[in-house]
Design brief:
By secondary structure, the chain is α/β, with parallel strands linked by helices. The chain has one domain: Rossmann fold (3-Layer(aba) Sandwich). The chain contains 8 helices and 7 strands. A 7-stranded parallel sheet has the order 3-2-1-4-5-6-7, with helices on both faces. Helix 1 crosses helix 8.
């Protein structure tokens, strides 16, 4: 299989928010970027916003059994995968005792199991080419305790552990694995959460030394760096992009 000089990236959850910002930055760098999501309409809107170097493919990653064939399809269409960004994830706010087993498993399935299965299938391909960069999107919820998001916190803590384990095993094969832990970022999701809860917003900003929320493109810039040759000696890190939130008092 001939290796093209142009890199190919998969960004899951690429239709909105942080995933969209990462896809925009990749496409602007000349990387062939495949955004993956469940909602075709959302993906189409993202495509028109991003413009060239971007393609959309629908896949419900929660259906683990469908992932191997999905990766095969991408390889058939694009020939290779150089970069994988595991950004797709779901959150659920509920009091601890109200979370059902089904609730918990649903979050773990999407946020952990799908990341594992997609990474495994992509790594099989990266291994043969002895090169690749995987970026997992973690969260502040893995850095400190947040109430009412038990399943999400468990899932993102698992992502940090998986990132280090994957990096240890895969880096000798030329595959780097890192994570980004976004702080409070201005997205439609956070706007909704904060507008209805000003006290929570004040608390979030109060413990962020820089004193303001980040923008999705701040995460995009970090992803471009970690995926690039500028980061060729960086693997196994969980990089907080959070205005100091994780160390703030």
């Amino acid at each position: 299989m001939s290796t093209q000089s142009k890199k190919v990236a998969i960004v899951t959850g690429g239709g909105s928010g942080i995933g969209l910002a990462i896809a925009q930055k990749f496409a602007a760098e000349g990387i062939t970027t495949i955004i993956v999501g469940r909602d075709q309409e959302k993906l189409n809107n993202a495509l028109s916003e991003i413009g060239e170097n971007c393609h959309a493919m629908t896949c419900d990653l929660a259906n683990l059994a469908g992932i191997p064939a999905f990766v095969e399809e991408i390889l058939k269409l694009f020939g290779q995968v150089d970069i994988l960004v595991n950004n797709a994830g779901i959150n659920m706010k509920k009091d601890f005792t109200e979370v059902t087993d089904e609730d918990f498993l649903q979050v773990i399935n999407t946020n952990v199991c799908a990341v594992f299965t997609l990474s495994r299938e992509v790594v099989k391909h990266m291994q043969s080419r002895k090169t690749g960069s995987i970026i997992n999107i973690s969260s502040m919820a893995a850095q400190y305790g947040l109430p009412r998001v038990i399943a999400y916190s468990a899932s993102k803590s698992a992502i940090d552990g998986m990132t280090r384990a994957m990096a240890s095993e895969l880096s000798p094969m030329g595959i780097r694995v890192n994570a980004i832990a976004p702080g409070f970022i201005e997205t439609a999701m956070t706007a909704k959460a904060f507008n209805s809860d000003p006290a929570r917003r004040d608390k979030a900003l109060g413990r962020t030394p820089m004193g303001y929320m980040g923008k999705p493109e701040d995460i995009g810039d970090a992803a471009v760096f970690l995926a690039s040759d500028s980061a060729k000696y960086i693997t196994g890190v969980v990089l907080p992009v959070d205005g100091g939130n994780s160390i703030g008092f």
